[in-house]
Write a structure and sequence with these properties.
The complex is a heterodimer.
Chain A: H1 3-34, H2 41-59, H3 62-85, H4 93-115, E1 130-133, E2 136-139, H5 140-162, H6 164-174, H7 176-181, H8 186-212, H9 219-234, H10 239-259, H11 266-280
Antiparallel strand pairs in A: 1-2
Chain B: H1 4-29, H2 38-54, H3 59-81, H4 86-106, E1 123-124, E2 127-128, H5 131-154, H6 156-166, H7 168-173, H8 178-204, H9 214-227, H10 232-248, H11 256-270, H12 281-301
Antiparallel strand pairs in B: 1-2
Helix pairs in contact in B: 1-5, 1-8, 1-9, 1-10, 2-3, 2-8, 3-8, 6-8, 9-10
Classes of the chains: A mainly alpha, B mainly alpha.
Chain lengths: ~290, ~300
């Protein structure tokens, strides 16, 4: 194999890993504050892609469409927290997981009804310029994904470390009841986490849609299961762990499908990696045992 | 008399009742949350289908092997699951069902994505069973499964499961070895699901990997949750209801996932214990009504 192909695979792996990280970090944040598996997060991701496509058709400007999709998806995520999860928090945790699965199944069908069963193209000509380097090619979308991911994560870090709200969120993540006793509005924090996490997921959704030039109803499904796998691998509630796990998964998937003959699909490999990692480290990469 | 259509619906109802009972043992009684029950159903279906189509086994010769095989898969899947707990366990079961489905699709031995066709109908007294005969076969299996689950739950295994489900640490302290009983639950639950798979394969005569993936597993979970987790009547009722609903409301067929998903959310809102679960509104009124009538009867007799 030439280095050109390897470099190309690394470009692909990096973009894939960045997109996984977008999903996984939001999920890890949500797990951090509420200790729930938010499977329906993938619905937000798919909704982001559809909204992005819709706004792009309306405005014709990609950046505007991206921001619009992130805002609306953030509101949608907040609504799910407010109207579905919050009333259920007192019940056993399994109840929320099942409700979340219900939301996932229900909403992906809703997309099919609203947007039709066919795959829609998401073509942004401005982002299709290709940059060659050592035999590998990165498109404008790849660059957008890398820079966008870096910006989003930097902003997220600033938000959590440097603002009052971020400080409150970290307190809630450590211990919800104690934080509440100290006068922190926990409901508001949880709501903010859902809004921010959903907006980031929508960013990932729009980027994937442009990268593969496709928006389809089931695009969230596989991501839902992989996202859960990623926060398990990363160590529950650890955002750094989830981000690292995302890049590991992106690279493993790409390399294994290119260079080996394992009789498994991409998703099969991801899931096998998950099972093996749980066996070796049940508490996750950065989790405390 | 029953037409072909009604027979098919009723038979499938029975099949799902059996699979739901398998999940009920695993999740309801032993408290091991599982989102991939159809993996074990698929194991039973594929083993039986392969033995009857490739190796000239008859249905009855293949049945014990298929049951043992799905039990073995349950055991193998249970081993890694001993390391995981709660949320990781749920996620792990998703992982396992995807690996299983992916293997079936990519290994040509299992027929690849098109699956296995021409699975023979069972032969009884030298003649292939009619549809009506098959329905009776399935009903017999449902009754057998129901009785055996009842016996199991009332035995020491069932008591150990209950104590594990309520408090694993305390159960372990009192001398119940948790891994052993968890593995029992995996093997037994998987065997029931495998039986459902065998009956499904020989009824539909054609199976693909997609019949036993994640989404069908969710349907089974919906059935069990809907009826009431951890009760035999709940699993039976849920399976019957959710197989019949799309058939009764044909127009619903197109929106099946929308309605299933929506129902699941609403159910969790208003009746998280299931329609007929212990302590649910409906079951409470049924039991009060029952005791009222019994008291009334005693009075009139006396």
């Amino acid at each position: 194999m030439s280095t050109g192909i390897l470099a190309q695979q690394l470009v692909n792996a990096l973009s894939l890993g960045a997109v996984y990280a977008m999903i996984a970090v939001g999920l890890a944040m949500i797990y951090g504050v509420l200790r729930i598996l938010h499977i329906a997060h993938a619905v937000i991701y798919a909704a982001g892609a559809y909204l992005g496509l819709y706004f792009y058709g309306l405005a014709g400007n990609f950046v505007l469409a991206l921001i619009g999709a992130m805002v609306v998806a953030g509101i949608l995520g907040g609504a799910i927290e407010r109207f579905v999860y919050r009333p259920m928090l007192a019940k056993p945790r399994i109840v929320i997981l099942i409700a979340s699965i219900g939301l996932l199944v229900c909403m992906s069908d809703l997309f099919r009804i609203l947007a039709g069963p066919h795959q829609l193209p998401f073509d942004v000509p401005a982002l299709q310029t290709r940059y060659g380097w050592e035999g590998a090619q990165a498109s404008g979308v790849d660059l957008y994904i890398w820079i966008g991911t870096a910006l989003v994560f930097a902003a997220l870090w600033l938000f959590l470390q440097r603002t009052r709200m971020g400080f409150a969120i970290r307190a809630v993540a450590q211990d919800l009841e104690t934080a509440q006793a100290m006068g922190i509005n926990a409901n508001q924090c949880v709501f903010a986490v859902f809004v921010v996490g959903s907006a980031i997921a929508a960013f990932g959704g729009v980027m994937v849609a442009v990268l593969y030039n496709a928006v389809y109803t089931t695009m969230g499904d596989m991501v839902a299961y992989k996202g859960l796998a990623l926060i398990v691998i990363g160590g529950f509630g650890s955002m750094t762990g989830a981000a690292i796990a995302s890049f590991i998964l992106g690279i493993t998937e790409t390399i294994v499908t290119t260079y080996t003959q394992i009789p498994l699909s991409r998703d099969g490999i991801a899931m096998l990696l998950l099972v093996l990692l749980i066996l070796v480290r049940p508490q996750g990469l950065l989790g405390k045992s | 008399m029953l037409g072909d259509y009604q027979l098919t619906v009723l038979t499938l109802m029975g099949v799902w009742m059996i699979v739901a009972q398998g999940l009920n043992v695993l999740t309801g009684y032993a408290g091991l949350f599982n989102l991939g029950i159809c993996m074990y159903m698929g194991a039973g279906a594929y083993i039986s289908a392969l033995l009857t189509t490739q190796y000239a086994f008859s249905f009855w010769e293949a049945l014990p092997w298929a049951l043992a095989g799905s039990g073995l898969i349950g055991f193998l899947a249970g081993l890694p699951s001993l390391r995981a707990r709660e949320d990781s366990l749920a996620v792990m079961s998703i992982g396992l069902v995807f690996v299983f489905e992916s293997l079936l699709i990519y290994l040509p031995y299992f027929g690849g994505p098109v699956g296995i066709g021409k699975i023979p109908v069972p032969v009884v007294y030298g003649e292939p069973v009619s549809k009506l005969g098959y329905l009776f076969l399935v009903i017999g299996a449902v009754v057998l499964v129901g009785i055996s689950v009842r016996c199991l739950v009332r035995s020491w295994i069932g008591l150990a499961w209950e104590s594990l489900r309520e408090d694993e640490l305390a159960a372990g302290m009192l001398g119940t070895y948790p891994p052993r009983f968890k593995l029992y639950a995996y093997v037994i639950g998987a065997t029931y699901a495998g039986l459902g798979g065998v009956l499904y394969a020989h009824f539909i005569n054609y199976i693909t990997p997609y019949d036993f993936g994640f989404l069908p597993s969710i349907y089974v979970l919906v059935m069990v949750v809907f009826g009431g987790v951890g009760t035999i009547r709940g699993a039976l009722f849920g399976a019957a209801l959710l197989t019949a609903l799309p058939e009764i409301f044909r127009f619903v067929q197109d929106y099946r996932n929308l309605i299933y998903g929506g129902l699941l959310v609403l159910m969790m809102f208003f009746e998280p214990k299931g329609l007929l679960g212990n302590d649910s509104r409906l079951w409470r009124s049924v039991t009060t009504l029952g005791s009222f009538f019994r008291a009334h009867l005693r009075k009139t007799v006396a």
